[in-house]
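User: Hey, quick favor. My workstation is busy. Could you predict this chain's structure for me?
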Amino acid sequence: MSDKKISIVDYGMGNLRSVEKAFESFGVFPEITSDYDKILNSDGIILPGVGAFPDAMECLEKLKLDEALKKAAKKGVPIMGICLGMQLLFDESDEVRLTKGLGLIDGRVKKFEVDLKIPHMGWNSLNIVKECPVLKGVKQGSYVYFVHSYHAVLKEEELVAFAPYGVNAPAVVMKGNVFGLQFHPEKSGDVGIQMLKNFWELIK
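Assistant: No problem, here it is.
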């Protein structure tokens, strides 16, 4: 068994246990932690998130975990943001009020302006436009589970997959060692588990 360590960042706003259980389903035991040094010295980091962007950034900053994440990214540690966690990776969001994000991926997060029910909630298909280690073995058009009212706007080269919902909403993004999934892999059945396994393979 590998001695590599994954940290799931606990800043008070995430469905942490379900992400942890998804990893445990294939024999990997991450640690849920809000400890600055543990996160900085992890071999891989999962940043989950549920709720509003400004509250999440405030919680991260209060614990100085925004700094830990930026330093870990700079060191080349693989980081994966999930749902709101993906949105936090961007430069800024206009949810509630304009708020600076972690700035690990270029772009901003804005509200859906579509004639469809918001939030975008339920199963939707992935349109994969670029190869990505996290999507290894995931088929074009695979369905995954979304819950979000805001979507990212980013550089084309950092977009890996989108889901059609009035607009092509970014669903998987990547910049170097930083990855984002707008959906919940832990609620997306075998397809989601495959992505978490792929993330583990990256750091193992």
